[in-house]
Amino acid sequence: MQPLAHVILKKGKEESMERFHPWIFSGAIDRIEGAVEEGDLVSVRKSDGKTIAYGHCAIGSIAVRIFSFGENLPGDDFWKNRIQQAYKLRESMGLTDAPDTNVYRLIHGEGDGMPGLIADYYNGTVVLQCHSVGMWLEREAITEALKAVLSDKLVAVYDKSAKTLPYKADIEAKDGYLYGESSVGEVLEYGNRFKVDWLEGQKTGFFIDQRENRKLLATYAKDKSVLNMFCYTGGFSFSAMQGGAKLVHSVDSSAKAIELTNENVGLNFPGENRHEAFVADGFDYLQDIKDKYDLIILDPPAFAKHRGALAQALQGYKRLNANAFRQIKPGGILFTFSCSQVVTRNNFREAVFSAAAISGREVRILHQLSQPADHPINIYHPEGEYLKGLVLYVE
Predict the structure, then answer these.
(1) Residue 388: which pLDDT band, with cuts at 50, 70 and 90?
(2) Could you confirm whether 130 is annotated as catalytic?
(3) Is the Cβ–Cβ distance between 45 and 10 less than 8 Å?
(4) ∠ CA 240-245-251 to the nearest 5 degrees?
């Protein structure tokens, strides 16, 4: 690695770097020495010229994403060593050789010291998503590092970055295999079988981040009538069935998602008639289901992808949860989530609390949920805590 330019910070603006925050905002930069383009490796220097970090430059308010702190230039084995650290962390969690689970997040951006990079492991296939041009330019080196670290546990590496790269970068990226090839796969999560479509599906193909919350749901599902809103591929639905639910309804606005949900239910519970799926708008469906369900899951897509949409998003969460509070059976359980990074834990709680007040129901918190351990949060980067959830008891 060799930096192509030097980013010189304004005096006093190095404080966040000294606290190991991995983002440099454009307003903190005094000048750039040397020619630089989107994604280039740059050194970051204090106003006195001392090098304090290395990262990838970017267009926008986040001007540099730091992946290495200190004076020393990262060496040729940097990505291999960093991925090895990430793998060892998952190994310590028991995820890399679990007999009933072969899907997990291997690299979680800033949480693993690789800002802008997501890598999910699906039973031998690693699906990459680059959210920065810098990481996209490193994709071949990262693939070689994955091959070295995972060895015979790696069948293929698929790059799915075409829709996640910054649109301002004007990069004509195409999704495709960087190593090997594999068909749309089947994975295990706590013994449940899922078909994962990383070619056409959302995100990298599956919402791995709800794994532990799906497991928790199963403990509440026995003999319950369950509604899984925004079901996508039906993960919460068959966790409920696994837990002994007497009836499960899955709802999503995407016909493709409903098709995959039905397929996944058939894999795990062939011939059973406890499950039914519907193509419908989530807000519309919740308008008239009075006392039909005693367990409801609300796991909508991100309502706010940037701060400018925050106020509208909070109104959406309030309206959605108020409808659920009004409709759920007395003594019901509500699992409710936000996956919007710009929505803080307090933002979400306040929206849900307002919804409870509007509904006039008595509500108690049973659990406060977050993302699982293979989606680690860098303690110096609290923005990495994106998934928020509450399990609520509704009188």
Answers:
(1) very high
(2) no
(3) no
(4) 60
Cα–Cα distance list, 237 to 119, 131, 230, 265, 387 (Å):
25, 30, 11, 8, 19
**Active-site residue (options: 57, 130, 231, 339):** 339
pLDDT tens per residue, range 363-374: 999 999 999 999
Q: How far is residue 124's CA from residue 238's CA, in Å, rounded to a whole number?
A: 24
Task: Give yes or no for a contact between 33 and 8, defined as CB atoms under 8 angstroms apart.
Answer: yes
Amino acid in the structure at residue 72 = N
d(CA 56, CA 63): 8
Sheet with strand 332-338: strands edge to edge: 275-279, 247-252, 225-229, 295-298, 332-338, 388-394, 363-369
Alpha carbon distance 25, 8 (integer Å) = 12
Instruction: Report DSSP state, residue 212.
Output: H
Nearest CA to 246 out of 272, 266, 277 is that of 272
Residue type, 23: W
Amino acid at 222: K
pLDDT in tens, 282-303: 888 988 888 899 999 999 988 8
- 79-124: pLDDT as tens digits: 999 999 999 999 999 999 999 999 999 999 999 999 999 999 999 9
Q: To the nearest 10°, report the CA torsion of 367, 373, 379, 383.
A: -70
Torsions phi, psi for 316 (to 5 deg): -65, -45
Name the pTM for this structure: 0.93
- Could you give all domains of the chain from N- to C-terminal order, each with its CATH number? 5-69 (2.30.130.10), 78-188 (3.30.750.80), 207-394 (3.40.50.150)
What confidence score (pLDDT) does residue 54 get? 96
Which residues touch 320 (CB under 8 Å, ≥6 apart)?
Answer: 282, 283, 286, 298, 300, 355
Beta bridge partners of 338: 388
Longest dimension (CA), the chain: 71
Edge-to-edge strands of the sheet including 51-57? 23-25, 62-69, 51-57, 41-45, 5-9, 29-33
Q: Which residues contact 245 (CB under 8 A, 6 or more apart)?
A: 221, 222, 223, 224, 225, 226, 274, 295
pLDDT band at 341 (very low <50, low <70, confident <90, very high): confident
Token reading at 318: 């309030």
